[in-house]
Write a structure and sequence with these properties.
single chain, mainly alpha, elongated
Length: about 90
């Protein structure tokens, strides 16, 4: 009985803090009841997209924080002059 009470409290809390509009929740519930595999696929695809965006933002923060080393200035990148590849291909 204690577990049922805890689960119901958790469901109530999740429903309270859910950031999705009620209209989206209703549409997903209809989709889940008619086509459960498609609903799971949509949920997985959205989750992967959010995860990808989170990792991309983390990568950008780490990059600009200098975790992978210093980022060279644009001027120093423009001054690079290596003709080694041209020599190898022409040989």
């Amino acid at each position: 009985m204690q577990l049922d009470s805890t689960v119901s409290k958790l469901k109530h809390l999740l429903k309270k803090i859910n950031p999705l509009p009620a209209r989206w929740q209703e549409r997903y519930a209809r989709l889940a009841s008619s086509k459960p595999y498609l609903a799971k696929f949509v949920l997985a695809a959205i989750s992967l997209l959010v995860l990808f965006l989170a990792f991309f933002l983390l990568f950008l923060v780490l990059l600009f924080n200098g975790s992978f080393g210093p980022i060279p200035a644009t001027a120093s990148l423009k001054k690079i002059d290596h003709n080694l590849a041209s020599e190898v291909y022409s040989a």
